[in-house]
Design goal:
Blueprint (H helix, E strand, L loop, with lengths): L1 E6 L5 H14 L3 E6 L6 H5 L14 H7 L2 E2 L2 E2 L14 E3 L2 E5 L12 H13 L6 E6 L5 H4 L8 E6 L3 H17 L4 E8 L2 H11 L5 E4 L2 H8 L9 H16 L2
Parallel strand pairs: 1-7, 1-8, 2-6, 2-7, 8-9, 9-10
Antiparallel strand pairs: 3-4, 5-6
Helix pairs in contact: 1-9
Length: 250
């Protein structure tokens, strides 16, 4: 599966991405985790060290062009996940991490070119039966306007029980429909009680496919840069239950 995680800034996209990545690994899967946020944090919450040494995906342009060239009447084969150069990733167990790249200074411009390379990579990558991709997307709706994730199997929109989060989620849903993405689901994060769920349902018109309850342990782990998945067994169960539902939709 190719799973993209979207939503308004601050709703917990990276947190949910980390739990899904670890849940997939514990289920015996090989996972390619891609941090597509211009302010990347996925490496830290997954417990990767020296992630700044990874060459950003934006530098893969020549590789992608090379692998999509025509050789006479034939096209070269699309790359597999295990065929990607190690210089563009780090590996920890069965999880590989790639980053699109961070904005390094003010006035540097948008990440349009970086996302164009990411879109090409997602379109080209072939997955084996035991491989999955989890994308931690940038906040907001820009990646949908650029069509970056048009080839994913599932778009998960993370929401919290407040209006700003839910308004952004509805915009994402509309743009996803324009792209023809039919497998969009909402995931509730930082939920305190059933009244929070009722509020989300009243705004979105349906119940989230996954619910992650508020956890002080997750907040504490994040503050001291510990892997989040070790801090909340309840969150890990929620992630695995969510993945099972996605598998049933295939």
């Amino acid at each position: 599966m190719k799973i993209a995680i979207s939503g308004k800034g601050g709703v917990g996209k990276t947190t949910i991405s980390a739990f899904l990545v670890k849940a997939l690994e514990e289920m015996g899967r090989k996972v390619l985790a891609i941090d597509a946020d211009p302010s990347p944090h996925l490496a830290r919450v997954l417990g990767f060290k020296n992630a700044s040494n990874i060459r950003p995906i934006a530098e893969m342009q020549e590789l992608l062009q090379e692998r999509s060239e025509r050789n006479g009447p034939f096209y070269k084969l699309n790359p597999k996940v295990d065929d990607l150069p190690e210089k563009f990733m780090q590996q920890k167990g069965n999880v590989r991490l790639m980053v699109v790249g961070a904005i390094q200074q003010g006035g540097a411009g948008c990440a349009c070119a970086d996302n164009a390379v990411l879109k090409s990579l997602l379109n080209m990558l072939l997955l084996s039966q035991d491989e999955d991709i989890v994308l931690d997307m940038e906040a907001g709706v820009e990646h949908l306007g650029r069509g970056t994730i048009s080839s994913v199997d599932h778009l998960l929109v993370v929401v919290q029980p407040y209006k700003g989060s839910l308004e952004t989620a509805k915009k994402i849903e509309k743009l996803a429909k324009d792209l023809g993405l039919n497998h969009l689901e909402f995931v509730a994060n930082n939920v305190e009680d059933e009244s929070d769920i009722d509020f989300i349902v009243s705004e979105l018109g349906r119940r989230p496919i996954g619910i992650f309850w508020s956890s002080k342990d997750v907040r504490k782990a994040e503050r001291v840069s510990l892997p989040l998945y070790d801090a909340c067994p309840q969150c890990m169960k929620a992630a695995k239950d969510l993945l099972k539902q996605l598998e049933q939709q295939r």
